[in-house]
Amino acid sequence: MKKIGMIGGLGPESTLDYYRLIIEKYRNEVKDGSYPEILINSMDMNILLSFVENKQWDNLVNCLIKGVEILYKAGADFGFISSNTPHIVFERIKELSPIPLISIVEETCKNAEALGIKKIGLIGTKFTMESNFFKKVFDKSNIKIIVPKEEEQDYIHHKLMTEIEFGKFLDETRNGLLNIVKRMIDEDSIEGLILGCTELPLILTKDEFGIPFLNTTKIHVESIIKNCIKES
C-alpha cells in the first residue's frame, strides 16, 4: 500500500470531505478492516488565494512545491492538491514535484469522456471559470467547456467565498446555483456539469435536470485510491 500525501486546507471543509471519502472508498475496495496512510499538509488558503488574485504564479508554484516537499520528506509516495483552483499551475508543480501528483482536472476529463459528454458546463471559483486550464485538458478529448455568464460567475464566486467555504449551505444559494445550471442547459445545451470547486459537492449533492453533475472531489478520490492500492 502506498502512502498518500494531501495538500489540504483549500478550504478546510473540502479537506474534511476528502478525508472521509478516502477512508470510505479505501474500506469499500480493500475490505480487510485496514485504513490507508494519509499525510495531510493543511496550508493557508488565504495566502494561496492572494497569489491567485494577484496573478503571482511563481509565488503560488513555490508555495505549493514547498508544501509537496514536506509531504515527500514525511514519506508520501504520491500526492494530490485537494482543490481545483491551484491546478492553474499544476503542470509546473508536476514538473518540480519530488513525488507523482494526481490531477483533478485530468481525472475529471476521463470521467466525462467515459460518459460520452461532448459539451459540459463548468462552475467553480472565478479564477477557475476565467482560466483555461480545464479547457486545455478537455480540448484534447474534443469536449467543449462552457462557463456561465460574467454576472453568474460573480454570483457563484461570491457565494463560494462568503458562505460555502465556511460551511454555510443555504437553500437560497442552492436554488440560485441551480437556476444558473438550468439556464446553461436551456441556452447552451450542456450535457453535464463539472463541480469545479471541491466545496460545490457539499451544496449540490446530487444530479439535477437529467444531466450528470461531475463531483470532482469524488472522481479525484477514486483515482487516489486506485493509485494507493496499486502494486508498485
TrEMBL record:
<dbReference type="Pfam" id="PF01177">
    <property type="entry name" value="Asp_Glu_race"/>
</dbReference>
<protein>
    <submittedName>
        <fullName>Aspartate racemase</fullName>
    </submittedName>
</protein>
<dbReference type="InterPro" id="IPR033134">
    <property type="entry name" value="Asp/Glu_racemase_AS_2"/>
</dbReference>
<dbReference type="GO" id="GO:0047661">
    <property type="term" value="F:amino-acid racemase activity"/>
</dbReference>
<keyword id="KW-0413">Isomerase</keyword>
<dbReference type="InterPro" id="IPR004380">
    <property type="entry name" value="Asp_race"/>
</dbReference>
<dbReference type="InterPro" id="IPR001920">
    <property type="entry name" value="Asp/Glu_race"/>
</dbReference>
<comment type="similarity">
    <text>Belongs to the aspartate/glutamate racemases family.</text>
</comment>
<dbReference type="InterPro" id="IPR015942">
    <property type="entry name" value="Asp/Glu/hydantoin_racemase"/>
</dbReference>
